[in-house]
Design goal:
- This protein has a domain of about 60 residues: Ubiquitin-like (UB roll), CATH 3.10.20.
- The protein has a 3-stranded antiparallel beta sheet.
- It is built from 17 helices and 3 strands.
- The longest helix has about 60 residues.
């Protein structure tokens, strides 16, 4: 998605307005502006710049969450929409986020609804955001919709932060393992080879293998770097393809230690998103579609799409959710209770709370388990290298004693 700056004339007021819009091409940007009631005068694609520029202009989830929370507070306090946006823009520390807010303010002052102007920035405001904004503006409860958004985004961010935090220490241990292996292979093993070469003796098989690896890395280091760089680039590009996304989704749902964790994460995210959408009056079809997109796993999303089709055919949500792959049992059970009591959104929220709590517990459990597993792996790898180094030294000592 490319970003374009534009100057256009508002068809209703005749005023000249300026702003920014995201689209696939300049032509598509022009069509979007026309659909929004503007007559384009000038459309210019913004230069992306280098990697540093893109990183500097990246809007973090934290920035969006802070904006949403502050905006909800001001709207709830009774401030007009444009005044609320202006105050939030002045308080925002993130320059990229401030630019987006200022663009929103410009469009709102030109007569556009908040939903319409937020749709110009799909990389910032996802479908869930847009759906809740539209529901809030339509029902006159924009502040409540924004509060729900802020609550959900903060919960989601906390869950992901907890997962990243649980994996940080194991990742550091893994880096230490790799550093120790590289040091021993590149520094210690060549010294043993020199010692055996001076004595004119043949290296044991384990030592000979490590010597071969060491010599290749030292002599062909540039080839190793190129291969690693190409492999990393290929992996990054592959994960962006449909096949790569599917493989990534399958791996997350089938890795023994992490399967339960990701299942709870996706089910909590689905139930919480559906709760917020249904509670604001969004139709069940749209709620299921947006909730599926918000999950972040294509395999689970496809299962939700099947559920959506069954609901479209007239089946109850609880029945449609039953026996679906990757949908944990509590979700259809709570949906069934909600259908009977007329509080389906509330029951889905309770299911989300249960899985969020279980997720916290499982993160702590995995964090506790993964450390000794990595230590055992480190012991085995380093032990192999130590044996490969000590074997020839022990052999030399034995020869000297026997001689």
């Amino acid at each position: 998605m490319k970003r374009f700056t534009y100057r256009a004339r508002d068809s209703k007021t005749g005023k000249i307005v300026k702003g920014a819009i995201q689209a696939e091409s300049e032509r598509t940007a022009g069509k979007l502006l026309i659909e929004q009631g503007f007559t384009p005068d000038k459309i210019v694609e913004e230069e992306e710049g280098g990697l540093l520029s893109r990183l500097q202009n990246k809007i973090r989830n934290k920035d969006k969450n802070v904006f949403t929370r502050q905006f909800a507070t001001l709207i709830g306090a009774g401030l007009p929409l444009s005044n609320s946006l202006r105050v939030v823009a002045e308080q925002t520390q993130s320059k990229p986020m401030r630019k987006v807010i200022e663009a929103l303010l410009s469009d709102v002052e030109a007569g556009k609804t908040l939903t319409e102007t937020c749709q110009k920035y799909p990389d910032v405001f996802d479908n869930l955001y847009i759906a809740l904004l539209r529901a809030g503006e339509t029902s006159g409860t924009l502040d409540l919709s924004l509060i729900r958004l802020a609550d959900q985004k903060e919960k989601d961010e906390k869950m992901m932060s907890d997962i990243r935090g649980a994996l940080t220490y194991p990742a550091i241990i893994l880096l230490v393992i790799i550093a120790v292996l590289i040091f021993m292979v590149l520094v210690v093993v060549p010294q043993v080879e020199d010692l055996y070469h001076d004595l004119g003796k043949e290296l044991p098989w384990a030592t000979a293998f490590l010597v071969g690896v060491s010599n290749f890395i030292i002599e062909q280091w540039f080839v190793v770097l190129i291969v690693l760089a190409v492999a990393v680039w290929f992996l990054i590009q592959f994960t962006k393809t449909d096949v790569g996304k599917r493989w990534g989704a399958i791996i997350k749902l089938n890795v023994p230690l992490f399967k339960g964790l990701f299942l709870r994460l996706y089910n909590a995210r689905f139930a919480r998103t559906a709760q917020n959408l249904l509670s604001t009056g969004v139709s069940i079809q749209d709620s299921l579609r947006i909730s599926g997109e918000a999950i972040g796993n294509i395999m689970v999303q496809e299962q939700i799409e099947i559920v959506m089709e069954k609901v479209k055919q007239g089946k109850p949500l609880s029945e449609s959710l039953k026996s679906r792959s990757y949908i944990l049992p509590l979700v259809p059970q709570m949906a069934s209770i909600g259908e009977q009591s007329g509080k389906i959104d509330e029951m889905l929220g309770k299911a989300a709370t249960v899985y969020e709590n279980e997720l916290d517990e499982q993160i702590r459990t995995i964090s506790t388990l993964i450390e000794p597993i990595l230590m055992v792996v480190m012991a085995l790898l380093v032990g192999f290298i130590v044996i490969a180094v000590l074997m020839p030294i022990y052999a030399i000592v034995s020869d000297v004693q026997s001689g």
